[in-house]
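Fold these two proteins, one after the other.
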Amino acid sequence: MMNYKKYKPFPKIQMENREWPDKVITKAPIWCSVDLRDGNQALAVPMGVHEKMEFFNLLLEIGFKEIEVGFPSASETEYRFMRTLVEKNLIPDDVKIQVLTQSRKHLIEKTFESLEGVKTAIVHLYNSTSTLQRKVVFKTDKRGVIEIAQEGASLIKELESKLKGTKIIKEYSPESFTGTELDFAVEVCEAVMDIWKPTTENKMIINLPATVEMAMPNIYADQIEWFIKHLKNRESVIISIHAHNDRGTSVAASELALLAGADRIEGTLFGNGERTGNADILTIALNMFSQGIDPQLDFSNINKVVEVYERCTRMKVHPRHPYAGELVYTAFSGSHQDAIRKGLNYYEVEKPEYWEVPYLPIDPADVGRQYEPIIRINSQSGKGGVAFIMEHYFGFKLPKEMQPEFSQLVQKVTDRTGKELKPEEIFDLFKKEYLERKSPVKLLKYRIEEDQNLSKKENNVSIFSTLEIDGKEIETKGIGNGPIDAFFHSLQNAGLSRYKFVTYEEHALSEGSDSKAVSYICLENGNGEKSFGVGIDANITTASLNAIISAINRFYK
């Protein structure tokens, strides 16, 4: 790693009174998807016409109004896809398709040939302008680079006049903008502007790509702001950006570029693109969404977006991908699980004006995801996660004092297996532990008699029960101020006298006349050990009596 000395730091942009650090994003930019070109050319197996068509329709559903459909002069597949869109009238009137071409005569001519019959198209012209490419690839000076750009721009203007019935919007990119001297980037773009002569009514697009991400995102923002401040006739130009992800910060670079004055973003879904990829439009859009800004793109069915993307590109969305990954609404940490559970409960009960749930920057339901996968249980999970599963999947609101007891049982299983437990597996463990223990004590039947003296405000309850203890039936009776108190005394009369009553809670498992009740009762034995029992029944008294039996039986596990 001592080889770091062969790399030089990117120089600071000399600019006084930079304004972008004080700006905020308040609206969505113009979005342009380049999935079908930049994303496609980066695939080991590029999409065929059928796959590109499915992806194109997905982009339309999401709401893209500008879509770069390909590089028609690059291959027969690209050209055929362009012609299919036109000949089958598959381009909506409010959608502009975009095609890319290098500044080379035969490529530009082939590109215009593909556009015959299109209503509106963006023709995207580019040539590389960076210091390194001038020196290593093109072996030419600045004048030579400007001439390449001007030749392409002049040919486009000439061919545009011959393409009847088609509105052409012109776009120019000084490729490798981030490696180009800023004054020269302005010079070459203005040379193209002099030929195309954009106006405020008929604007051109200048795209400033981070073809290679060479510095921190703030440097890209500085470059954009510097360029805009020094460009003539800014009002006649739409400033577009196209950030790659070589440093892993293309999303941040794009957001800061918007602060610096950019109007438009070119990018791809999930950041697919050459080398380390492009700016991820989905992430940028949902970042805006999370700040209360309408992104003008619809990701409310994010599962479908993932499904179509993976099928068409043969790529996989990372499970930790922001907003779309399989695990991004999942918490394994116990403290996270507890905070999420409490936050969701707070949101449901208090109904605050804004979404505020710990660890969840957006409501998963807003992108078509469900609450069910938010909590997963493994050996790192805590009581909050287990309680969340039991309540949100199965309706059991475990008492706070009971949560550590059951979560320890769950953790023993996950420690032993080393695996994650699914909700159904957790519930099976709960049933086995609390609801299905029938020995050594079993309640066979009971009868209640009440003697109420309303004038004295007295209520005496007698309970006559039949128990099975260690396989033997026992008739017993107890008296108390209520059924639970009376039953507890009847157990003492049957020889089960070493238990003390600690706590009692109950609630309905569901709403309606046919709902069942669940009771939670904690007992303490003669050794000071505590154990919870759970009972369920349509009759709340029966549920409570079963909970007492459940607690007793758990002392014998």
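Now the second one:
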Amino acid sequence: MKAIPRPQRWDNPFDPDMTEADVDRILSMSPFREMNLDDFPASTPLGGILRNDTRIRRYQNGDIIVREGDYGNSAFFIMSGSVRVVLDGLPTSMLGRLEPKRKGFFRAFAQLWRNHKEPEVRDTTRYVAHSGVRARDDEGRDDRIFLQDVPGVLDAHNTARMEAGAFFGEIAALGRVERTATVFAEGEAELLEIRWQGLRGIRRRDRKLKEHIDALYRKNALITHLRETPMFRHLSEEELTEVANQTVFETYGDFDWYTSYKTMAEESAANRLAKEPIIAEEGHYPNGVILIRSGFARLSQRFGHGHRTISYLGKGQYYGFDEIIHNWRQRSEGETLPVWNERGNQPVPLQYTLRAVGYANVLIVPTPIIEKFVLDPDRENPRIPLALLPPPIVVAESAEEDVQQELTRLEINEDMLELLVENRFINGTATMMINLDRCTRCDDCVRACAVAHDGNSRFIRHGPKVGNYMVANACMHCADPVCMIGCPTGAIHREVHGQVVINDATCIGCSTCANSCPYHNIHMVEIRGKDGNFILDQNTNAPIMKATKCDLCIDQLGGPACQRACPHDALRRVDMQDGLKSLADWINR
């Protein structure tokens, strides 16, 4: 038996070339020099964070640092020089992305005989030029996208300058939300890139940096998030601000959950559940409404010696409101409550346990704030009509009865729900579901996909099954598309309507997206020229690789060809973000 050292967090530093001299230089800059080194534990000292969780990056004029709409896991500190933030958005063509154009009827029809006989044929002339954007090799370490006409961008777009000492990108990094603006270098600029683990570590130990980041979030994002939540829509700006000031930010789970998921998927269901951090526990006092800002959370209830999954929550959904309403009604004077059962009018604790599935970023609005701004404890001027509030909670006679009631409400088989949550298919906005009772294995769906993609099918009619249903190996166009994190050129990106697509012209074949996808739905392929021969790297003579996957037929009339081609309505693209309503409607049709 071979013994090896236990893996440590910093076994793989962000930049192996970072030196102690670089760390000392960073520590000499504000705000790092004002940080108290004694506030950091010996296991993760500030110097260690800077040595292992940061890297120094140098940009030339016009280099794009982050793109609007991208997902990232790092923030940036400007060490020298300046950058420009584009406030009104750049055309997608200038960001190295694909401008989707739907094929006309005759061109779509001609695919039946015009597609190439060889697989993965490419027109290499498309790799030569892009409108307003180019790739720049920085000493062979990565490929940068840069703007060709910086003066034109400055004249045509509203921009703001950020100079040395400023942070940006921290909110998107900590919350795994899309970048809200494009930032590019103005002249030569030197930036410190901090991956989210290091940023989180510094934020926990340095009060000023935490307050700075929290203030930015409250100013730029939290108010908007609260305003979009139904229970807060009636509040004034002043009231929203007070709610925001009392809201607590918390993160649970592993931001990089996809890196360990493939290994963890082989463990038992009980072990996987035990590794999901508890956000709120069944039986505890409801001390606030928990809003899911990003990621997913599992609702489960005790059953026998374990737990059974009841449902799941995603971005924009919340938990704890029903219990707070019930208890507030029970305490209120002058209201006659209906007798639901002998225990119906008693205060209730949280009915379910809420766990982070992989990773969840949550906001917690304390119960007193909910009662003050949403429920109005004085009862003189009700904020929300009582008829619109959820009814008192009916406490079930047994856990089994409660679980069954909830599953009946969802109209989803318990085994189906477990499959979707355990395998994290709940991440999908276009998950391919196949009814095996209706499917005749005619492969019309596969052939239709191939016709729509120059003879190359973009999915495999294979995948995990439960009962008479199968989840096929096809890109799900995830709500949390971890495949997009780390793409050096932005080739893989999200379109306006949610499709996650790859711009073949700017894909450099690095495999980052394929390695990150937890569902094995992105594949690297060897590409060919129009003559049918492989396209080779002129330096190594190895075949050029490109990433490929389902694009939801973004350029086809009528949408996904696979779904349209099924003669028996056995295949459906299902959005899992509506609380399983779409899936239940399809299953129970």
